[in-house]
Amino acid sequence: MKKLAIAVAGTAAIALFAGACSSSDQPSANPGAGSASAPAPGGGTLTVFAAASLTESFNVLGKQFEAAHPGVKVTFDYEGSSSLVQKLDNGAKADVFASADQKNMDKAVQDGVIDGQPAVFATNKLAIAVAKGNPKGIKTFADLTKPGLNVVVCAEQVPCGAATKKIEQGTGTALKPVSEETNVKQVLAKVQSGDADAGLVYVTDATSAAGKVDKVDFAESSGAVNQYPIALVKNAPQAALAKQFSDFILGTEGKAELAKIGFGPGK
């Protein structure tokens, strides 16, 4: 009887030990549970729709985010903000939307494609991009009306175009551009290629292209400062990662990288 009692007790102890191991040493059936900042199991691809003027800064920040989230890949679609809103309206899948103005973000919210409240992470204003050495001697906004000058601007529905129009109206200056582009990088490209003598771009675009174009600042640009809001897209495939990326852009590291090429702080 004693031997039988000892055997039963030993079996019970083994079962109890095994149960303890299964509850504490085995991986959870829901990795990341209880931690809102934990990336999805195995990483994933985060898709960010961002205004073209964010290209240089967001490329760097995307790599930093990937380094901090092993297994995660960040992909960007850079276009004019109005084009990106149209894509979202048409059902394009994305996780994050960063606009170059409040107007297009407001439209995205009204169209029901944004989840939660957008937050402003940066500001930007216009500058004049000219050929190296500024051969046409452009010094002011009014100089863009000189006869024979080939000027390019953004289309009015694009944030950089809306800012241009606001400055024209505020100064009583009527520009006669040879073309209106769908995003600010196309304006910059025409100045770099020599197809235009001057183009209205953001300070940050002209700064990022230093060595390829010269930048002419003008006082009237302060009358059309654009705010850059960021938000999560509704039904985002990577909602948890989208929140982490948005917080990263709004945080210290995001602000520092954006400031390097001239973005102002969010307001």
From TrEMBL:
Residues 1-20 form the signal peptide. The keyword RNA-binding does not apply. It holds the Pfam family SBP_bac_11. Keywords: Metal-binding, Signal. The keyword S-adenosyl-L-methionine does not apply. Belongs to the bacterial solute-binding protein ModA family. This is Molybdate ABC transporter substrate-binding protein. It comes from Amycolatopsis silviterrae.
